[in-house]
From TrEMBL:
Binding positions for substrate per the UniProt entry: R16, H17, G18, E19, S20, V21, A22, N23, R66
Xref: InterPro entries: His_Pase_superF_clade-1 (IPR013078), His_PPase_superfam (IPR029033), PG/BPGM_mutase_AS (IPR001345), Phosphoglycerate_Mutase (IPR051695)
Active site location: H17 (tele-phosphohistidine intermediate), E90 (proton donor/acceptor)
A GO MF label: fructose-2,6-bisphosphate 2-phosphatase activity
Protein name: Fructose-2,6-bisphosphatase
GO CC annotation terms, alphabetical: cytosol
Species of provenance: Crenothrix polyspora
PROSITE patterns with a match to the protein in the record: PG_MUTASE (PS00175)
Alphabetized PANTHER family for the sequence: FRUCTOSE-2,6-BISPHOSPHATASE TIGAR
KW Hydrolase (keyword) present: yes
A Gene Ontology BP annotation from the UniProt entry: regulation of pentose-phosphate shunt
Keyword Transcription (UniProt): no
């Protein structure tokens, strides 16, 4: 778990990018650069709507276009420049990228699962080990927390965000991060989290705690 070295609490909003073309086509995207769909652009606007009354001081995104596009309405509304960061990209799935998600029901599934549980440096061919992925996310998060003051928005990817949440909250169990939720994390001793619904009947509703179903 990360400590808050500032005298004042830091708040972070953590969002997954909106629906991408790869998501819509049920492809394994990884670090492929695919744009948002119409639904994804709606989700980007919902994110902006929920954050209109927040005094954001920084917006960080993965450098992949689906994350940048998701943050743009919020950045434009608040007049904040998006800081695009390569180290916030999704894990690289190597030769599986661009394949239908159904490929995970075939023999490559075992390799994919092993890489995500990596303890020995195993990776999908052309891909990234979990150890390498965890290190780059952890290092980048530490860097952002050292230099950031105020309230920040981070827009990234499923596995990236799950890693960030786990590190910030000291979680030992899996988290299922969805793009229908925005996570509000307050760093402290202990840290706390609220889950905010994006879109649908409960748009903008804040749930205390981590809601990941």
């Amino acid at each position: 778990m990360f400590e808050n070295n500032s005298s004042a609490p830091k708040r972070l909003f953590l969002a997954r990018h909106g629906e991408s073309v790869a998501n819509q086509q049920k492809l394994i995207s990884g670090q492929l650069d695919t744009p948002l769909t119409g639904k994804g652009k709606d989700q980007a606007q919902w994110l902006c709507d929920v954050l209109k009354n927040e005094s954001l001081s920084a917006i960080y995104t993965s450098s992949l276009s689906r994350a940048v596009e998701t943050a743009k309405p919020t950045a434009n509304y608040h007049g904040i420049e998006i800081q695009q960061i390569d180290n916030l990209k999704e894990i690289h799935f190597g030769l599986l990228q661009g394949n239908p998600v159904d490929v995970l029901d075939t023999p490559p599934q075992a390799l994919c699962q092993n890489s995500m549980k990596d303890t020995q440096g195993l990776a999908i061919t052309g891909g990234e080990t979990l150890t390498t992925f965890e290190r780059r996310i952890t290092d980048q998060l530490e860097l952002m927390l050292q230099h950031h003051r105020g309230i920040a928005l981070i827009v990234a990817h499923r596995n990236t965000n799950e890693m960030i949440l786990s590190k910030l909250l000291g979680l030992t169990h899996a988290v299922n991060v969805k793009n229908k939720y925005l996570y509000e994390i307050t760093l402290g001793d202990p840290p706390s989290v609220n889950t905010i619904r994006l879109g649908g009947e409960f748009h903008g509703k804040k749930f205390v705690g981590l809601k990941d179903e």
